[in-house]
Structure formats: C-alpha cells, structure tokens
Amino acid sequence: MKPLGVGLEITPMVKLGEIVVNKVVKFRIIRDGKPEKNAKIFGSYDGYAEDEMSMPFYAKSDLKGEFKFKALRAGHWYLKSEIEIDSGNNDGEIKGDLTTLSFMVK
Fold it and tell me: In the 8-state DSSP scheme, what is residue 39?
C-alpha cells in the first residue's frame, strides 16, 4: 500500500501478508505527505468490545511518523487516529482530521 499524500493516512511499512500474529511490524502515519509526529493511534479487532471506549492497542508515532504494531490474535483489525489542527483563524477554532485503516491478520 502506498500513501496518496492527501489528508491523514495510516499505511503499513510491510506487505499486508506480512502482518501476522505476534510479529512486530511498522506503520507510518502522515498528513498531506509529511510525517505526523506524536499522533495517538488506537486499534481493535472484531468482537473485542461493544463500544469504542475499550481498545487493546495503543501507540504514539515517533518524529518520523512511525509506530510499531503487534497483533495479539488473528482476524480483522482496524487502526484509527484523530488529530486536532489549528484552523489558523484568530477565533481559536480547531479542526479535526480522522483516519482509519482496516486489515486482516493471519
């Protein structure tokens, strides 16, 4: 998977077939083609919880926008991140940008 370079994106740094249980793999989060530093990333798998308040995965991106992921079980997983962006207006308005990525773990 290659990033489009538009908006907020999470992309794996390995082929999707290499994302397997108990193997640490790297992902990257970028916004408009540039690394998103210190972004909070949450993840879950199908059936983990009824609501989105409980998540079995959490990471924070480094200065290169990279973070490590280790699947605890096989199945359908998703990662998500939401960042706040200053709108540049003097009224203190904050804009949000959200991204999700879903994939299968073997």
Answer: -
